[in-house]
Every structure is written in structure tokens, then in C-alpha cells.
């Protein structure tokens, strides 16, 4: 495992790794749709706890995922703050009540707005561990085979597989160029100033783009020589049959999705309102 790898398949012998890629993809999609369509706090809390547990079962080390987690958390917090800044009264309009926590004019914070923002945060808490766990525990070729089983064009499936394989290579090139820059005396480690590091990162982009274009040309030529796309269908070497555990995973995803639909009827809409 490359110590600088930020996002890519991490081969291990865990329960999560052993699931069929198609079953895992179906589960992630079903649960993600369920979480995106409901604002029932009870449901989101249960799914969030389950997602964290599943992510823990994948046995991923913090140094392997820390950058991605920090990056996602930063933009999630930024999005939540933007939601509040642009419409701080949305919560009270949504839940039909107003309990002021902090009075600050336009930016007055109410219990209803805080509750709504907490639900938005819970959505991230439900879906991000599942999505990351799927990407980091699924072989790109198996992922492509799973897409093909879901009736996605094999050309699209193969393109996704190449993209997932290519991400770690781009990361490796970035860090190689970064180390070369540091060897020339340009400080880009954590010891350097933030703006100097940003400037150095931007300077790396150009050589990284050229090396990427060269690699794309090589891959494209190799695929043409192998007559890729000449047939309407293709087989997948890494395709695996479904086992009992895979069927159970698919059923679990369906059950969670059906529960979200039932809650939609019980709550009279997408939102669970404890302020009635």
C-alpha cells in the first residue's frame, strides 16, 4: 500500500471486501436514495450508526483515509453554514414553530433551524462512510463488472474502472513531482506556509496534466490494438456469483429503502416533525 495513497482500492481480507461488488453497489445505492429522500431523524440515526459500523468492519487505517475524511468534512461543514447563511428561517417555516436559541437579527438561530441542519449533517454521516467504504474495498474491475450486471453499458463500466485505477496513479505522480520540488528547495511540507504550499500545488498541476495526457494516449492506443468496443457485449473475468451473504445484503438495502417509503407515509411527507 502506497503511504501517500489518498483514494483508491485497498486490498484486504475482511468481511466487507468479500461481498460481491454488485451486491455492495446495490446496497449503497438503495441506502443512499433512502437517506436522501427522507428527513426522519430516527431513521437517519440508525443508518448512520450502521454505516459507521460497516466502515469499521472494512479495517481501514486512519492514515489511509484521513485526507479524504478531512476534505469531505470541510466541504460538508461549509455547505451546512451556507444553508444557514442563505436561509436561517427555513427550519421554523418547515416545522411550523419558532423557539429562539440565539437572537442575532437576520442570523437568529432557532431550535427548528438547528434541528434541520442536524438532519442535513446526518445525511452526510449516513452516506459518506458507505460510499467511501465501497470505493476503498471494491476492486475497480469488480466494480465495472457490477455496473455491467446492473445493465450499464460495458463501455461506461470500463471507463469507470479505468478512472478508479487511474486515481492512485495521479496521486503517485503528484507526490513524486512534489518531492522533486522539495529537493530543489521549495518547501511544500506541513512546515511551509499555507499560501506557499498552495502556490507549489498549483505549479505541480501543469506537469501533472501533461503526464496524464501522455498516459491517456498510451491506454487509448492499447485499447484500440485490443479491438475494444468491437463487440456489443463482453464477459468479465472478475465477475463472481452471488452467495447467501450477498442476497442478504441486497435484501437489507431493499428493506431500508422500503422503511424510508413507509416513514414518508407515516410522517405525511419527507420530514419528521417533533415540534407538533
Automatic annotation (TrEMBL):
Keyword annotations: Membrane, Transmembrane, Transmembrane helix
Subcellular locations according to the entry: Membrane
Domain of life: Bacteria
One GO cellular component, as annotated: plasma membrane
Transmembrane segments: 67-86, 114-136, 247-266
Bilayer topology term: Multi-pass membrane protein
InterPro entries: ABC/ECF_trnsptr_transmembrane
Signal peptide (UniProt feature, chain positions): none
Record protein name field: ABC-type cobalt transport system, permease component CbiQ related transporter
Protein species of origin: Ligilactobacillus agilis DSM 20509
Amino acid at each position: 500500500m502506497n503511504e501517500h495513497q489518498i483514494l483508491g482500492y485497498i486490498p484486504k481480507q475482511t468481511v466487507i471486501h468479500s461481498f460481491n461488488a454488485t451486491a455492495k453497489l446495490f446496497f449503497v445505492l438503495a441506502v443512499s436514495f433512502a437517506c436522501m429522500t427522507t428527513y426522519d431523524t430516527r431513521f437517519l440515526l440508525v443508518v448512520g450508526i450502521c454505516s459507521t459500523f460497516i466502515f469499521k468492519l472494512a479495517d481501514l487505517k486512519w492514515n489511509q483515509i484521513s485526507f479524504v475524511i478531512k476534505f469531505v468534512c470541510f466541504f460538508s461543514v461549509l455547505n451546512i453554514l451556507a444553508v444557514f447563511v442563505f436561509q436561517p428561517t427555513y427550519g421554523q417555516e418547515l416545522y411550523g414553530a419558532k423557539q429562539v436559541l440565539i437572537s442575532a437579527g437576520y442570523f437568529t438561530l432557532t431550535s427548528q433551524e438547528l434541528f434541520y441542519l442536524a438532519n442535513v449533517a446526518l445525511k452526510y454521516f449516513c452516506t459518506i462512510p458507505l460510499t467511501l467504504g465501497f470505493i476503498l474495498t471494491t476492486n475497480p474491475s469488480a466494480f465495472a463488472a457490477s455496473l455491467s450486471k446492473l445493465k450499464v453499458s460495458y463501455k461506461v463500466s470500463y471507463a469507470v474502472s479505468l478512472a478508479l485505477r487511474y486515481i492512485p496513479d495521479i496521486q503517485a505522480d503528484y507526490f513524486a513531482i512534489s518531492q522533486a520540488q522539495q529537493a530543489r528547495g521549495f518547501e511544500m511540507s506541513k512546515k511551509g506556509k499555507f499560501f506557499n504550499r498552495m502556490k507549489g500545488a498549483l505549479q505541480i498541476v501543469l506537469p501533472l496534466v501533461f503526464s496524464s495526457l501522455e498516459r491517456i494516449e498510451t491506454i487509448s492506443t492499447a485499447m484500440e490494438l485490443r479491438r475494444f468496443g468491437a463487440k456489443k457485449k463482453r464477459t468479465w473475468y472478475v465477475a463472481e456469483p452471488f452467495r447467501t451473504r450477498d442476497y442478504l445484503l441486497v435484501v437489507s438495502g431493499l428493506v431500508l429503502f422500503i422503511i424510508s417509503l413507509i416513514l414518508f407515509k407515516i410522517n405525511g411527507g419527507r420530514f419528521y416533525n417533533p415540534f407538533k
